[in-house]
């Protein structure tokens, strides 16, 4: 395989045909023998920000420009449905202490809250830009990110505004990340703020609301209150649940028709059955489990039960400072028991479901032109060659971005 220097195809012409695709993952079961809809020896035509043609190379139409991927695999860009990118500060010492035996606890979040409050909007925007570029370089083309390191109305709203201006695709309000330090002796007063004035102020800037349902964060009654407030504001519901132990997170999420419950590291058989019988997406965060020395999450059991699974990076400064969706996919295979097909599906169309989107995560006519070229002949290599950076080229909304 030869390497090709990046070009902005939008500057060359209005349509581009990608040829020489050894293996094309479409996620369109109508194309191919498996749900992944793999088409061998394929071509894709992009026009503007959309995909306008998908099929066998031999019958590809002409386009204004062409790009030969040299037999490599092409996949939908990763849909990273869980990250915490609006933060300042450094917690490497906490990481090292954890590697020396100290357990991960929600309390470390407050270190980041202090640093994030002290950062200016311009500083937060610059740090977000670096993180988005890192994600893009790894094949991620659709990003969700959360607030949750401000914990005052002003700081939460500015995090949401910086995120929206910084080119992420979905923003989630996570005022209920941990209790704010000012309310140490009166957590219910903080919850009143989160579910009242803070939510009123931030709702126009976000699509989802999230709550960390865990010991040291929010208990069952408080979690239910946050979700009820989000429902009243018409936001999609998300829950951080079952991260540090079995708990009520999955049950509450399913009861409330949440879009997703994220982490799912410690699940009872009942939790798995509840997820399988619901439309709530089980979002697995395998790099976080590795980085906190927990898990692995029971991906195989979830898949066998028929639950909808997403895989995301959970890039954040505490539990998981990695944006690598390629690594998340590899770990989902090697540690959580998914097949390479299942893991790729979970990191693309699964992520799209966790964000209530049908325009990303698939390669089909009319969808957003978000594609990644792997430096490998098939997607199996993501786990087979774990640890290698396999991203060769990336298009987002029809533009070559890496
Ligand atoms: O998803 N669990 C809560 N929130 C993040 C970690 C945040 C932090 O430690 O800073 C997570 O793991």
Bound ligands:
N-(iminomethyl)-L-glutamic acid
* Number of helical stretches of at least 4 residues: 13
Fraction of residues in β-strands: 15-25%
Q: What is CATH's topology name of the largest domain?
A: TIM Barrel
Mean pLDDT: 95
Give the overall silhouette.
Answer: globular
Query: In the residues, how many domains can be counted?
Result: 2
Order of helices and strands: EEEEEEHHHEHEHEHEHEHEHHEHHEHEE
The total beta strand count reads: 16
Going by CATH, what is the homologous superfamily of the largest domain? Metal-dependent hydrolases
User: Poorly predicted ranges (pLDDT <50, ≥5 residues)?
Assistant: 1-12
CATH level 1 class label of the largest domain: Alpha Beta
Report, as a whole number of angstroms, the end-to-end distance.
18 Å
The residue fraction in helices comes out at: 25-40%
Query: How would a crystallographer describe the biggest sheet?
Result: 8 strands, mixed
**Which structural class is indicated by helix and strand composition?**
alpha/beta
Radius of gyration: 21 Å
CATH architecture of the largest domain: Alpha-Beta Barrel
Q: Could you describe the 3D structure shown?
A:
By secondary structure, this protein is α/β, with parallel strands linked by helices. It has two domains: 9-77 and 361-400, Roll (Urease, subunit C, domain 1); 79-353, Metal-dependent hydrolases (TIM Barrel). Helices cover 33% and strands 22% of the residues. It has 13 helices and 16 strands. The chain has helices spanning 92-99, 109-118, 121-137, 153-165, 187-202, 220-232, 249-255, 269-276, 286-291, 299-305, 325-334, 340-354, 381-384, and strands at residues 15-25, 38-47, 50-56, 65-68, 73-76, 78-80, 140-146, 170-176, 208-213, 236-241, 260-263, 281-284, 309-311, 371-374, 391-396, 399-400. The strands form two sheets. Strands 1, 2, 3, 4, 5, 14, 15 and 16 form an eight-stranded mixed sheet that branches. Strands 6-7-8-9-10-11-12-13 form an eight-stranded parallel sheet. β10 (236-241), α7 and β11 (260-263) form a beta-alpha-beta unit. α4 packs parallel to α5 (187-202). It is globular, with a radius of gyration of 21 Å. 57% of the residues are buried. Residues 1-12 have low confidence and may be disordered. The structure holds N-(iminomethyl)-L-glutamic acid. N-(iminomethyl)-L-glutamic acid (NIG) is lined by residues 84, 108-109, 112, 212, 240, 243, 288, 314, 316-319.
